[in-house]
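Q: Hi! Curious about what DUF2116 family Zn-ribbon domain-containing protein looks like structurally. Here's the sequence.
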Amino acid sequence: MEEKLCLECNTRINGRADKKFCNDYCRNAYNNRLNKKSKNLIRNVNNRLKKNYRILEELNPNGKRKTTKTVLADKGFDFELITNLYHTKNGTTYYFIYDLGYLPLENDFYVLVKK
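A: Let's find out. The predicted structure is below.
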């Protein structure tokens, strides 16, 4: 029978035939190292989404409000980052971060809405 070695620390593994790691620490260390780059990207995008959400929530506590692009930008709102779009029947496009959204109007005004 072939001797199995831990994928993380290369120590001998005892136990089930399909076991890949000697303990939970090695399993977690291996998977964290394997997914480090993608996890950093996801964490950074999620943090930026949360920031956008908090800004919209702060500026629009009652479900509908008008504001300006300057107010949003001054608070650090990232206009490049959204979770979904909503297209109305008349061709208007709302930009959403989860359930909070905005509609660009003329003269750098925005309507903030909640689904």
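A: A fun detail: The chain has three helices and five strands.
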